[in-house]
Design brief:
The chain is α/β, with parallel strands linked by helices. Helix content is 30%, strand content 16%.
């Protein structure tokens, strides 16, 4: 911990309590843990027998507009992991900001895996402002689920990055930052989210032993 004050965290869980797979799931910058996207992903994981635990950063739980400073965001992640038995008991990840912050503590906290929905590789329209330095040496096995036309990092953008070999991708056709495709694409948002959940569930199950208490 950095010494920053962290508001007590409230959790929202889906999926079987005795699941060997526990995934801590943080929200994006602009929406709380109960958004339709977060809820749909959590229910999808639960249907695969995965225990999903959502939580909010202090600014979101207090309904403030501006995100907390990075040290607070990172300490919130550290606390959430500690609250659930430590890194070897959980996988971590989230949507956009939530996933990015998880990626910054994943190695330190020794989590079993990292899953990011829509990683914000750079601000929209500013491809030179990369947020990838720590991803070059990431040791934690990671899966990034990214829309091919995500303005925070398209498939073409990402092809030019230097990233750790521990990172794998699932590209969602014509998806934006929330995996939503255009109506003309022939693919629906529901299909993209279902495909993302399917890939992520398989990834997570591969990161845990049959009994997490063994």
């Amino acid at each position: 911990m950095t010494g920053e004050k962290v508001t007590p965290i409230q959790y929202l869980a889906d999926g079987p309590e005795d699941s060997p797979v526990v995934f801590l799931f943080a929200h994006g910058a602009g929406g709380p843990m109960r958004t339709p996207f977060m809820a749909n992903v959590a229910r999808g994981f639960a249907a695969h027998g995965i225990r999903v635990v959502r939580f909010e950063f202090p600014y979101m739980s207090e309904r403030r507009r501006a995100p907390d400073r990075q040290p607070v965001l990172l300490d919130t992640w550290r606390q959430a992991i500690a609250d659930h038995g430590g890194g070897q008991r959980v996988a971590a990840g989230g949507k956009s900001l939530g996933g990015r912050m998880a990626s910054m503590v994943a190695d330190e906290m020794n989590v079993r895996g990292l899953v990011c929905f829509g990683y914000p590789f750079h601000p929209p329209g500013k491809p030179q402002r990369l947020r990838t330095a720590h991803l070059e040496s990431l040791r934690t096995p990671a899966l990034i689920l990214q829309g091919t036309r995500d303005p925070f990092g398209t498939q073409d953008d990402v092809a030019g990055y230097t990233l750790s070999p521990s990172i794998q991708f699932e590209w969602l056709p014509d998806g934006d930052h929330s995996l939503k495709p255009r109506a003309s694409s022939g693919t629906t948002e529901r299909e993209n989210v279902a495909r993302a959940v399917e890939a992520a569930a398989a990834f997570l199950k591969g990161r845990f032993p049959a009994n997490r208490h063994s």
